[in-house]
Design goal:
The complex is a heterodimer of chains A (162) and B (180). Chain A is mostly helical and 162 residues long. Chain A contains eight helices and no strands. Chain B folds into two domains: 47 residues, no CATH class; 117 residues, no CATH class. In chain B, helix 6 runs antiparallel to helix 7. The chains are: A mainly alpha (162), B mainly alpha (180). Chains A and B meet through helix 1, helix 2, helix 5, helix 6 and helix 7 of A and helix 2, helix 3, helix 6, helix 7 and helix 8 of B.
């Protein structure tokens, strides 16, 4: 769904650009390819890291970590799991919903969803290429801490950790 | 050739590790490869349009325009635009970095870059609708209500934690990357 939107926007802009000015469009394409090639090594590392991590953390392990009666430790585990994994939203939300039905608390799910989206440990190599090491560490630490706030707010509104 | 090997050395090292994993524990190793293959396919879908947009933005959008709307002194207008642009985005967080890179080259203020990344990471509209569907409106709206001020506060703290020279260095790095 979001991929279709992305392609729609990209192709629409491309068609417009091509119609307006072929030379500029060529320049844009060259630039796109140059930056893509430049960052490719980091992307390939991220791909392998995701594979390695998820091989050790299957859904059963995740649900046992943040499942029923996991309490505050569950919130912490959810934060850690969410931070180090990279799962696309269309897989993550149904998974979160399943975890809820399986007995996980709202607070844990809030921690999981928030850190999953905001903290990117495996994408560190890519973020570092654009922003440098210091920025990348600081941003991820702040996003991690903020996810605790999100978890508490969700827990408060939805009725706490089970 | 040597240069290529050097650039890809971390990748080759990680690949060797996965190979070792297959030898030590076949099941885990193969599962890692399978997930990597799946992720590769997904990135193959996401990366080309993101970089195409980057190239087109760089060529077409005049710097003065971005400076006026999102640069130093753009105030609330810049913040709101950063949130809207980030939220309208589609695709995972790693797609935000290349776009943020062009924004920096075009003179967008650092805190607005940070707000844009924050919005892209967590208040994307397509994802929000999906969240409502999976976890309920109460859950999704609570998260959104906390996230919007949160993103701005994180951007503010982050800009205070980094020195002027560190920020300049980040801008320089991205200008270089797009110089070709």
């Amino acid at each position: 769904m979001s991929t279709i939107v992305l392609y729609g926007v990209a192709l629409g802009l491309f068609a417009f650009s091509f119609f307006k000015d072929k030379e500029k469009t060529k320049k844009a394409l060259r630039k796109a390819l140059a930056v893509m090639e430049n960052i490719m090594p980091e992307f390939l590392v991220v791909i392998l890291l995701v594979g390695i991590l998820l091989a050790f953390m299957d859904p059963q392990l995740i649900s046992s970590l943040i499942g029923v009666d996991s309490g505050m430790w569950g919130v912490f585990a959810a934060l850690v799991v969410g931070s180090i994994t990279l799962i696309p939203g269309f897989v993550a939300f149904p998974m979160a919903s399943m975890l809820l039905q399986g007995g996980a608390g709202y607070m844990q799910i809030g921690a999981f969803v928030s850190s999953l989206m905001m903290v990117g440990v495996v994408t560190f190599p890519v973020e570092k290429r654009f922003f440098g090491t210091k920025f990348t560490i600081l941003r991820n630490v702040l996003a991690f801490l903020f996810s605790i706030v999100v978890a508490l707010a969700i827990g408060y509104v939805m009725g706490g950790a089970r | 050739m040597k240069k290529v090997l050097k650039r890809y050395r971390v990748f080759l090292g990680t690949l060797a590790f996965v190979g070792l994993l297959v030898l030590v524990n076949r099941e885990v190793g193969l599962s890692a490869l399978k997930t990597a293959g799946y992720t590769f396919k997904e990135m193959l879908l996401v990366i080309p349009p993101v970089f195409l947009i980057l190239g087109l933005l760089d060529v077409w959008v005049p710097r003065e325009l971005m400076v006026r709307y999102m640069g130093e002194g753009s105030g609330l207008k810049g913040i709101v635009l950063a949130i809207i642009l980030g939220s309208a985005a589609a695709g995972p967080l790693y797609g935000a970095f290349p776009i943020a890179s062009v924004f920096m080259k075009k003179g967008v203020k650092f805190t607005n870059i940070l707000i844009f990344i924050g919005a892209w990471s967590t208040t994307k509209i397509p994802m929000f609708l999906f969240e409502v569907e999976s976890l309920g409106a109460r859950f999704a709206f609570t998260r959104l209500a906390v996230d919007i001020p949160g993103i701005i506060i994180i951007a503010w703290i982050l800009s205070k934690l980094l020195s002027k020279s560190a920020v300049d260095e980040i801008y320089r790095r991205n200008e270089e990357m797009l110089a070709k």
